[in-house]
Design goal:
9 helices; mainly alpha
Length: about 230
């Protein structure tokens, strides 16, 4: 599939919005709307996946393998650097446990032993936890006839959000089903607020992770389809 230039422009605008959001947080200013750039990335990702699957046949295995090949190596490398830094005492506020490390590597929501928040070891990976869930759902939908895919995906996510609203769930995996403005989440798990707070405590680790992911998203490294 050729490059959809308008989507690339939208990706650039979303990335800049997130950068300005974090820069404003670091300098004591407010640009809360910039955090919506993450949501824009989610929407773009879903759009591109749908377009790709509509233009050429894809098997679930091929779809998942393409996502893993593009995401996992650099994410595991960055996570390994964080682990090495923690073991070397460079990040005194970063607590390591085997179950949290494994959950982080395999994109499973888990409470951080450092803060109690639902974070992977590399904080930026919280978006990938959601992306991997969507990848798995989308891959499964490829087994269905084309006209059933969108209703099936939409129905599943509506059902998950409904469960999150009505069920008294407390474990980290289940809490990811709750909308961000749900009373059980508000004030307890706000990814953007908590990410801003962790910026001030992670020091060099945060700097390294930001530089690595910025390099990964340089214009010359942006493919014609998102992750």
């Amino acid at each position: 599939m050729g490059t959809i230039r308008t989507i690339q422009y939208l990706r650039a605008a979303a990335a800049l919005a997130v950068v300005v959001f974090h820069a404003a947080e670091k300098t004591g200013h407010d640009f809360a709307v910039g955090a919506a750039g993450v949501d824009v990335f989610f929407v773009i990702s879903g759009f591109i996946m749908w377009v790709i699957s509509d233009r050429r046949p894809l098997t679930p295995a091929k779809f998942i393998w393409d996502r893993i090949r593009r995401i996992v190596p650099i994410y595991w490398f960055a996570t390994a650097v964080m682990i090495a830094g923690a073991l070397a005492g460079l990040f005194p506020n970063l607590a390591l446990t085997l179950d949290h490390v494994l959950a982080s590597l395999f994109f499973i929501p888990f409470r951080s032993p450092s803060s109690g928040e639902i974070w992977p070891l590399l904080v930026q990976g919280w978006t990938l936890n959601f992306e991997m869930l969507f990848y798995a759902v989308f891959a499964a939908s490829l087994l269905l006839p084309r006209h059933w895919r969108l209703p099936a995906i939409a129905g599943l996510f509506v059902a998950l959000v409904t469960i999150g609203w009505v069920a008294p769930l407390e474990d980290a995996l289940s809490l990811t089903l709750y909308p961000a403005d749900h009373p059980r989440i508000r004030g307890r798990y706000d990814p953007r607020r908590a990410l801003a707070e962790r910026q001030n405590s992670r020091g060099g680790g945060r700097f390294f992770a930001d530089r690595l992911f910025a390099w990964r998203l340089r214009p010359d490294r942006i493919p014609s389809s998102p992750l």
